[in-house]
Design a protein that fits this description.
Number of strands: 8
Shape: elongated
CATH topology of the largest domain: TIM Barrel
Largest sheet: 8 strands, parallel, barrel
Distance between the termini: 61 Å
Strand order of the largest sheet: 1-2-3-4-5-6-7-8
CATH architecture of the largest domain: Alpha-Beta Barrel
Bound molecules: 3-methyl-2-oxobutanoic acid
CATH superfamily of the largest domain: Phosphoenolpyruvate-binding domains
Order of helices and strands: HEHEHHEHEHEHHEHEEHHH
Strand content: 5-15%
Helix content: 40-55%
CATH class of the largest domain: Alpha Beta
Structural class: alpha/beta
């Protein structure tokens, strides 16, 4: 069954948890989809995990469209959400609608995600008015890394906690159908979750959220540049891959790969007649 914004709303109403994982290519999207994950996020985290940048700031609309189109070709049932990259919506409400539209038309996504609260409610409203579903993203918003001065847990003080709750209410009111809460204290995330009518999707925000999202390379041990506290490794695929690469290298160098079963045959008489 295809997951839609209605699936998200129904899950919230029934108290059923939602699963979301990132994917950035066709083959991974197919695996995530076949595993029954509700939603695939084509995150701008691809800047680090796929392109080797230090942060998400260099990711372009073209990068996002390229990877989103690959993912949507592989995802049959998961709701595909594409991230709006840095400076694709901050510049104006007009840019926000045009670029959200490109992720839907050219990328084939079913929804977009953008970082920020009250200051972007007008943008969210305009995108939703264009019939494009929006996921908001609050708490640690990596596109603001220079403003935050690093990756830090958000909403810890009284005023900051109140601000985060107010932002969550504001993006809901602006029409977002879900909100990602990143690096938010568990009890605050649970309180926001109880207050909102739309689902919260947590990453580093505890089990009280309506759903969870992780970067797939993090949960498979495929990305070793840094490991946030909130990541759980669900399979050491990075080590398994390295082992397979080593075995391949050894067999190529020993001349044991390819073996007979990996080769194509030809009649000996043809070879004999070559001159
Ligand atoms: O870009 C991304 O992968 C994200 C998640 C970390 C929520 O925004």
């Amino acid at each position: 069954m295809k997951n839609t914004v209605v699936t998200f709303q129904e899950a919230k109403e029934k108290g059923e948890k939602l699963s979301m994982l990132t994917a950035y290519d066709y083959s991974t999207a197919k695996l995530v989809d076949e595993a029954g994950i509700n939603s695939i996020l084509v995150g701008d985290s691809l800047g680090m995990t796929m392109l080797g940048y230090e942060n998400t700031l260099s990711v372009t609309m073209e990068d996002m469209i390229h990877h989103t189109a690959a993912v949507t070709r592989g995802a049959k049932n998961a709701l595909v959400v594409a991230d709006m990259p840095f400076m694709s919506y901050q510049t104006s409400v007009y840019d926000a609608v045009v670029n959200a539209g490109r992720l839907i038309k050219e990328g084939g996504a079913q929804a977009v995600k953008l970082e920020g609260g009250k200051e972007f409610c007008e943008h969210i409203r305009a995108i939703v008015n264009a019939s494009i579903p929006v996921v908001a993203h609050l708490g640690l918003t990596p596109q603001s890394i220079n403003a935050f001065g690093g990756f830090k847990v958000q909403g810890k003080g009284q005023a900051q906690a109140q601000k985060l709750l107010d932002e969550a209410k504001a993006v809901q009111e602006a029409g977002a159908f879900a909100v990602v809460l990143e690096c938010v204290p568990e009890k605050l995330a649970a309180h926001i979750t109880k207050t909102l009518a739309i689902p919260t999707i947590g990453i580093g925000a505890g089990a009280g959220c309506d759903g969870q999202v992780l970067v797939y390379q993090d949960m498979l041990g495929l990305f070793s540049d840094f490991k946030p506290k909130f990541v759980k490794c669900f399979g050491n695929i990075g080590e398994a891959m390295k082992e397979a690469f080593r075995n391949y290298d050894n067999e190529v160098k020993a001349g044991t790969f390819p073996a007979a079963e990996h080769t194509f045959k030809i009649d000996d008489t043809i070879i004999d007649k070559l001159y």
